[in-house]
Amino acid sequence: MEVIAIQKSALEGIRKDLKELLELAESATCKYTPIFNEEKWLDNQEVCLMMSITKRTLQTYKNKGLLPYSKLNRKNYYKLSDVQALYKAVYQNNINENGFTDQ
């Protein structure tokens, strides 16, 4: 077993820094947890698999404003309820892949 000796002041400094880091993490968790607990969020791949569409079709839906999304760290996320509503519209109202109604 290896024993490392450090000064008490250095140990207290490390403890203080770790405590501050823990408080920051808890603060961020408390701030954003309610947002994500209200709704399940899906990424591009999950939406494409769920709706059986290509990434290009998903991009068309976004461009035409048919599917709202949020961007976080250069990645798009979609609310499950929005995806379900679009899925229902696509298959019940015959919206084609270009975002237009087939009627």
From TrEMBL:
Coiled-coil region(s): none
- Superkingdom to which the source organism belongs: Bacteria
- InterPro entries in the record: DNA-bd_dom_put_sf, HTH_17
Helix-turn-helix domain boundaries: 41-86
Family matches, as SUPFAM superfamilies = Putative DNA-binding domain (SSF46955)
Q: What is this protein called?
A: Helix-turn-helix domain-containing protein
